[in-house]
Amino acid sequence: MTQGTIHAIYLASRAGAPLLPAEQVRALKGLGLEGDRYALGQGSFSRWPGMGRAVSFVEQEVIEAVLREHGLDLAEGRSRRNVVTTGVALLGLVGRRFRVGGALFRGDRPCEPCGYLERRVGPGLVAVLRGRGGLRADVLEEGTFGLGDGIEIEGDVRSWFGVGRLS
Which of 32, 9, 13, 33 shows the shortest CA–CA distance to 22? Predict the structure, then answer.
């Protein structure tokens, strides 16, 4: 079942570097997105091993709401998240496997905002994004995906979205 699409993709070659847009990217199993700081071992958290650091996702709807409600601009990669989605509740993907294009991901945990992001974007951002900062995921199967690709959640997830069984 497809839920949502890929709205934008961003990569940075090292920690602190601006995130640059990409139309298509290759997800590398166990590493992250080809050319991105985490796949290269150059991310802020790269020195600490662990799950859920490979790829970060955020909802376009959240980016728009934060700007509208609080005047904080997270557009054009300022969210410091790799993938911007539309039409899917990302927190519902924690612990789930989902496919985007040819790549398979597992949602690991929420991507909570941090003080570093707040210093880059503006005061109050941590409080504004708490509980809606996105999703951290790992790459389970290598593959390419791009703008406009759908997000296919494995298994029957209709009950997550308040839709009963169809006959």
Answer: 9
Residue 72: CA atoms inside 13 Å, Cβ hemisphere, count?
A: 22
Q: Which own/partner contact pairs does 36-40 have at CB distance under 8 Å and 24+ positions apart?
A: 36/11, 36/12, 36/82, 37/11, 37/12, 37/13, 40/13, 40/14
pLDDT, tens digit (0-9, with 9 covering 90-100), for 70-112: 998 889 988 889 999 999 999 999 999 999 999 999 999 998 8
Q: What are phi and psi of 91, to 5 degrees?
A: -65, -20
Q: At 97, phi and psi to the nearest 5?
A: -100, 140
Residue given tokens 């802020």 in the structure block: 44
Global confidence as pTM:
0.86
**Tokens coding 102:** 């040819």
Contact 101, 143 (CB under 8 A): yes
Of the candidates 19, 11, 14, 111, the one whose C-alpha atom is nearest the C-alpha of residue 56 is 111
